[in-house]
What does this fold into?
Amino acid sequence: MPGDGAASAPHIPAAGREKAATAMAEAAAAWLGTLSEDQLLLAAFDSPLHPDAEAERLRWFYTPTGHGGLAIRDQSPRQQSLAMQLVATGLSTAGYATVSTVMGLENVLDQLEGWTVHWGRQRGRDPGLYWLRIFGRPGDRIWAWRLGGHHISLNSLVVAGRLVSTTPCFIGADPATTELLGGTLRPLQGPEDTARRLARSLDADQFRRALLHPCAVSDIVSGNRPHVRHGDTMMHMQDLWRGRFEDPDLDRLVNDIDRRAEAASGYTDIDHARVAITFPPKGISGRDLDEGQRHLLRRLVVLYTGRAPEFLADAYDTHYASDTVLDLVHFGWAGSTDVGKPHYYRVQDPRILIEYDNTQRHANHAHSVWRDLTSDFGLDVLAEHRAHIAHE
It folds into this structure.
């Protein structure tokens, strides 16, 4: 069991799980029903019970690589609408707005980079390059769906007519801050500012316990691993893509990006080991915070769980309102607490792992992820299902 203490689970009403699963199945079936045979070859995969399909389901990314499935840009306007209707069933209203905003940021990023980044495609930064894939047949006992693209990875599993998993859930933003006419666009403003407020509220002794490293690691540490394990260290960019580049120029580009990020962080293998994922978790625990700090920590957690459909988000709100549960939550920080400076933080308890970094592009390129250390991809529920079948 990861972490210290018991990995207590939030009480999630069965009716909510069933309602969400029904909405997902109806939306997925409606989308699939409009696809051509060629489109279905990309969009529809075997059930998670098939080893090859399950291996693909666990293969997730947050880089601008091929994520697998049918891309939004390769669909008709009606199909695109139906695809996004399915995506919306897996998110809260605020979560859907955030994901949609991040997808649209590809246009802004393209301009920011001078329209020069292509990644071997006609357009390297493309708001249509988000891939949707269905695993199994919607409405069957076991099926799943995934949306993935640059800075987005959403993963949902349905078992026995109930939504059982919505993690890993990755949302990034590049640029993290964009000037608007009379305002500023920051899709991850809440998670960044709340964590900074918590870090700045710590006294010297508390901050010493929370500090993972004086400098920020240049990416989330768990990477895109299907399983998070004790001792995991940051993955390098070359390993966050679906295969290696055949084009030597693109291969050099990825290596250069990784090398620059490492140089900016100043990290060596010793530094990476210092911020490795560990069970029990690093950082300061909720039990060692005062009431105002505990409020900020609780608020930070639910900003991530609030991405999920409202019934799930409400269950997590109630769960983390418990002082006993919050006592086991640890908060760790690396880097500067100054606005606009590279930083990283981690929130972890026996069940949840949250990571956030804003280090690249002079601290204007953010990554955030919510993972369930006991039930990512619903693997615990699938294991129980397989065990049940084996004993029949």
About this structure: The chain has a mean pLDDT of 97. The chain has two domains: 14-177, 187-378.
